[in-house]
From TrEMBL:
<comment type="function">
    <text>Mutarotase that catalyzes the interconversion of beta-D-galactose and alpha-D-galactose during galactose metabolism. Beta-D-galactose is metabolized in the liver into glucose 1-phosphate, the primary metabolic fuel, by the action of four enzymes that constitute the Leloir pathway: GALM, GALK1 (galactokinase), GALT (galactose-1-phosphate uridylyltransferase) and GALE (UDP-galactose-4'-epimerase). Involved in the maintenance of the equilibrium between the beta- and alpha-anomers of galactose, therefore ensuring a sufficient supply of the alpha-anomer for GALK1.</text>
</comment>
<dbReference type="InterPro" id="IPR018052">
    <property type="entry name" value="Ald1_epimerase_CS"/>
</dbReference>
<dbReference type="InterPro" id="IPR008183">
    <property type="entry name" value="Aldose_1/G6P_1-epimerase"/>
</dbReference>
<dbReference type="InterPro" id="IPR011013">
    <property type="entry name" value="Gal_mutarotase_sf_dom"/>
</dbReference>
<comment type="pathway">
    <text>Carbohydrate metabolism; hexose metabolism.</text>
</comment>
<protein>
    <recommendedName>
        <fullName>Aldose 1-epimerase</fullName>
        <ecNumber>5.1.3.3</ecNumber>
    </recommendedName>
</protein>
<feature type="active site" description="Proton acceptor">
    <location>
        <position position="307"/>
    </location>
</feature>
<dbReference type="GO" id="GO:0006006">
    <property type="term" value="P:glucose metabolic process"/>
</dbReference>
<feature type="active site" description="Proton donor">
    <location>
        <position position="176"/>
    </location>
</feature>
<comment type="pathway">
    <text>Carbohydrate metabolism; galactose metabolism.</text>
</comment>
<feature type="binding site">
    <location>
        <position position="243"/>
    </location>
    <ligand>
        <name>beta-D-galactose</name>
    </ligand>
</feature>
<dbReference type="InterPro" id="IPR047215">
    <property type="entry name" value="Galactose_mutarotase-like"/>
</dbReference>
<dbReference type="InterPro" id="IPR014718">
    <property type="entry name" value="GH-type_carb-bd"/>
</dbReference>
<dbReference type="GO" id="GO:0004034">
    <property type="term" value="F:aldose 1-epimerase activity"/>
</dbReference>
<dbReference type="InterPro" id="IPR015443">
    <property type="entry name" value="Aldose_1-epimerase"/>
</dbReference>
<dbReference type="Pfam" id="PF01263">
    <property type="entry name" value="Aldose_epim"/>
</dbReference>
<comment type="similarity">
    <text>Belongs to the aldose epimerase family.</text>
</comment>
Length: 322
């Protein structure tokens, strides 16, 4: 049987409110989630010898999450990933967003869904967070009611996203956890074996906006349909890392998307989704300057993200609104 407990995690500055931490515990996993950004702050899981480690990157306290940091564990929105030049049209009207990753808009803008306090509700096997994103927030049209629900059942953590808009608006929600299955704080993810069930991927320009081409993975570095050892694979293909959308061929029903295996510990992460894409990001911009949990520093390639979502810049790209 699982349990859910709640505790105070910290106080926001200037009377901004109390951030709470929810601990979801099953026989296989312990997951900590805070009401700031619906952020997963820890996932503890045993190795084959029964030794537990925390396998997600993050911070020991609220101050860590409030500093400038690369979305560790957070829910990102209103639109995850990039919107080219921060502009798009809805019903003939143009909208302009802040260019917080020049020359594009990234992960919802300057103060996206990762940088707000959500209202929690404890469930028997999880926690639900909700908030209302006001009309015009970060430049997006319409009011958006959002619910993010985490539930834990044995070894399976389910994240369910629901949103209701008062008018047409782009929405793309995902979770931005960085995993290291050897245990967070381990120097890299090179000994992780990665499989992504995708026949095609989206090539990008130098600002990481898809070029419009849906390219076959066959015969390229992006063919991850059979397991590859990440470090060797990056070397073989002279790649700086992955930061790409893989196109999933599954239906809108929940389907298998990716598997990452860490042979030394015996830990395996499997990802299933109802979404048409997954952004595979290998922590290319991590640079070892953040002070993480238990004295960890996070150098380049010390964590990976599998962000299930709609295709990047979908609002501007014909044929990607699936
Ligand atoms: C993006 C990266 C970005 C990272 C952190 C990922 O989702 O694809 O380009 O650097 O988030 O901001």
């Amino acid at each position: 049987m699982g349990s859910v407990t709640r505790a105070v995690f910290g106080e926001l500055p200037s009377g901004g409110g109390t951030v709470e931490k929810f601990r979801l515990q099953s026989d296989l996993l312990r997951v900590d989630i805070i009401s700031w950004g619906c952020t997963i702050t820890a996932i503890e899981v045993k190795d084959r010898q029964g030794r537990a480690s925390d396998v997600v990157l993050g911070f020991a306290d609220l101050e860590g999450y409030l500093q400038k940091q690369p979305y560790f564990g957070a829910v990102v929105g209103r639109v995850a990933n990039r919107i080219a030049k921060g502009t798009f049209k809805v019903d003939g009207k143009e909208y302009c967003l802040a260019l917080n990753k020049e020359p594009n808009s990234l992960h919802g803008g300057v103060r996206g869904f990762d940088k707000v306090l959500w209202t929690p509700r404890v469930l028997s096997n999880g926690v639900q967070f909700s908030r209302v994103s006001p009309d015009g927030e970060e430049g997006y049209p319409g009011e958006l009611k959002v619910w993010v629900t985490y539930t834990l059942d044995g070894g399976e953590l389910v994240v369910n996203y629901r949103a209701q808009a008062s008018q047409a608006t782009p929405v793309n929600l995902t979770n931005h956890s960085y995993f290291n299955l050897a245990g967070q704080g381990s120097p890299n993810i090179y000994d992780h074996e990665v499989t992504i069930e995708a026949d095609t991927y989206l090539p990008v320009d130098e600002t990481l906006i898809p070029t419009g081409e849906v390219a076959p993975v066959q015969g390229t570095a992006f063919d991850l349909r059979k397991p590859v050892e990440l470090g060797k694979h990056l070397q073989d293909f002279h790649l700086n890392g992955f930061d790409h959308n893989f196109c999933l061929k599954g239906s809108k029903e929940k389907h298998f998307c990716a598997r990452v295996r860490h042979a030394a510990s015996g830990r395996v992460l499997e990802v299933y989704t109802t979404q048409p894409g997954v952004q595979f990001y290998t922590g290319n911009f991590l640079d070892g300057t953040l002070k993480g949990k238990s004295g960890a520093v996070y150098p380049k390639h010390s964590g990976f993200c599998l962000e299930t979502q709609n295709w990047p810049d979908a609002v501007n790209q014909a044929g990607t609104d699936l």
